Amino acid sequence: MSLSLRILVVAAHFPPDLGALATRVHDLGRAWVALGHEVHVLCGLPSHPTGVVPPRWRGRLYSDEVVDGIFVHRTWIYPTPNAGRVRRSLAYASFAASVLAIGQRRVEDPDVVIATSPQFLAAVSGALLSRGRRVPLVLEIRDLWPRSIWEVGAMSRHHPAIKVLEQLERWLYRQADEIVVVSEAFRAEIANHLPGVQAQDLPVITNGVRLERFDPKLDGGAVRARLGLPRDKPLALYAGTHGLAHGLSTVIQAARRAPEVHWAFVGEGACKEALRVEADGAPNITFHPGVGAEGMPEIYAMADLCLVPLRDLEVFRTVLPSKMFEIWAMGRPLVLGVAGEAARLAERSGASVVVPPEDPVALAQAVCALSHNEPRRQAMGEAGRAFVEAHFDRRQLALRYAALLDRVARRRTSASQQRGDPPKVGTDLA
Fold first, then answer.
1. Matching fold, domains 3-208+393-423 and 211-391
2. Which CB contacts under 8 angstroms, 24+ apart, belong to 213-217?
3. In 3-state terms, what secondary structure has residue 71?
4. Which of 50, 143, 345, 347 gives a 20 to 30 Å CA spacing to 338?
5. CA-based nearest residue to 357, from 371, 346, 343, 345
6. Strands (E), 185-283
7. How confident is the chain (430 residues) per 10-residue block, as mean pLDDT?
8. Is residue 117 a contact partner of residue 146, using CB atoms and an 8 Å limit?
């Protein structure tokens, strides 16, 4: 028998916020509800990544609603664009504080808390909440903070704040009843911080896709027309955050080398305005606003091929960008400018061309070769769809995750019974 769990996820972002975190939490939550669990999400009032709070939530300290069966508890966060170190730090700290001061009061005792990082302080607030409620903590690591902060140049390696974050990192690892990572490469990195823990002991729950959302046959012509994009040119698409990590200057340089291809950027982020300036005067480069997860299939549908670049940094050899799975699910070929685990997975997919990161010449050559070879694009698209169907169906990943949560809750329940603690409300045997 399995436990019918009350699951609490502490995550800074949930739709209509944009980004991989919001999509992951929403998709997993929907799947857990379908399995019979009660799912609560503690998140910030929407504003990511533009810093603009939609009118529905403006001027509020908190908001409670039900989205696809998920109980969503939104609490105040300092709204700021995803740019500027000081303002972003204020946003992180404000959310962590409001989770503890306001948000947790709106949630009954859960059976398990999932705290997801980054952002880092959200994970800290989740850990404190789990300790206060005496419930197990699952720490989900989606990025190697604080290492990625200093590697991208957002802060000096020797900044006092980095030292504090490293102490918090070690404290979080010690607090967790279970640590979940999203890539194989993260295992070894984290095991180095945990004496006595072997990398293979850390469960991997990768990102994935809700396959029913993505239809490779969807016609993207109407979207091209709406955005004013040419119908008579092959279109290379970058969709996602325009941030320090992504090395999008390389894409601009590649686009200038391939004027026969139209290069479209869809999304928001700290570097967007600088990229606009860099692309000024190039008629084959256009920028477009970010869209929510539900709008992404038609954005991918308008593309002949899609781009996933990152900077050439050691930390990015451990990551699996979530947009890879969406691109494959939409049956679009991928040109990947990332080394390490992502490159190895892309090569396995049969749906990707891998180029060295931050190499505009190689990127331009790969895009041009694919844009002039429709049969190859078609074959790659079919291979990508088959690959995610076999390995990255979000429902199957959610089922594995739910089994892990069940084991964590059972361990804590068994320990409580041995101590003679009273049973906790909200934990029933199904």
1. yes
2. 213/293, 213/294, 213/297, 213/329, 214/297, 214/300, 214/326, 214/329, 214/330, 215/297, 215/330, 216/329, 216/330, 216/331, 216/332, 216/381, 216/385, 217/331
3. strand
4. 50
5. 343
6. 235-239, 262-266
7. 84 92 95 97 92 92 95 92 72 89 88 89 92 94 75 73 81 91 86 79 93 94 94 96 93 98 94 95 96 93 97 90 96 97 96 98 98 97 98 96 95 56 36
8. no
327 and 334 in contact (C-beta within 8 Å)?
Answer: yes
* Domain covering 3-208+393-423, topology: Rossmann fold (3.40.50)
Residue 425 has what pLDDT?
Answer: 35
Q: Which fold has domain 211-391?
A: Rossmann fold (3.40.50)
Per-domain residue ranges of the chain:
3-208+393-423, 211-391
- CA 313 from chain center: how many Å? 19
Instruction: Give ∠ CA 86-314-49 in degrees, rounded to 5.
Output: 35
Q: Looking at the whole model, is its pTM more than 0.90?
A: no
| DSSP designation for 118 | S
DSSP-derived secondary structure letter, 177: S
378-405 burial code (b ≥16 CB/10 A, e <16) = eebbebbbebbeebbbbbebbeebbebb
Q: Are 95 and 74 in contact (CB under 8 A)?
A: no
